[in-house]
Amino acid sequence: MKKRLNWVKFQFAARPENIALARVAAASFASQLDWNLADLDEIKVAVSEAVSNAIIHGYDRNPEGVVELEMSLLEGEVLEFIVRDSGKGIPDVKQAMEPAFSTLPDSMGLGFTFMQSFMDELEVESSPGRGTTVTMRKKFPAEAGV
């Protein structure tokens, strides 16, 4: 496990308007490294998708739910974002991670696909009735800022 050089953790109500807060917080935290704008946009999309999943799927849009966002800068210039909920959980994580799979008819089912595309590592742990933890890591590219 890499040493944490800096970190922040906060909780917020499972309300859709807090997705924007999570995006801004992720971009602000990530900016301690000199990311280009495209990478920052990818980080914001990945974090907002994880938070959206917690609100929409984990809590069925119940604003009484609590979403936790933990952000860390690890040794080796790696950013780690962890999004946790204690909602209903995912019965089949492998199926949920398939492109275009969704339990909702009005959803494109691309949240996990975006997370996988925009981050270097994605881990999803879930237990029905106990919640979901999504861990995403992105390594700062060696050629960035040059």
- Helicity, in percent? 25-40%
Please give the order of strands in the largest beta sheet. Answer: 1-2-3-5-4
Approximately how much beta-strand content do the residues carry? Answer: 25-35%
Give the C-alpha Rg.
15 Å
The helix/strand class is alpha+beta
- What is the arithmetic mean of pLDDT? 91
CATH architecture: 2-Layer Sandwich
The secondary-structure element order is EHHEEHHEE
List the SSEs and their pairings.
Blueprint: E1 4-13, H1 18-30, H2 37-58, E2 66-74, E3 78-85, H3 93-96, H4 111-118, E4 121-127, E5 131-139
Antiparallel strand pairs: 1-2, 2-3, 3-5, 4-5
Helix pairs in contact: 1-2, 2-4
Give a short synopsis of this structure.
This protein is an alpha+beta fold.
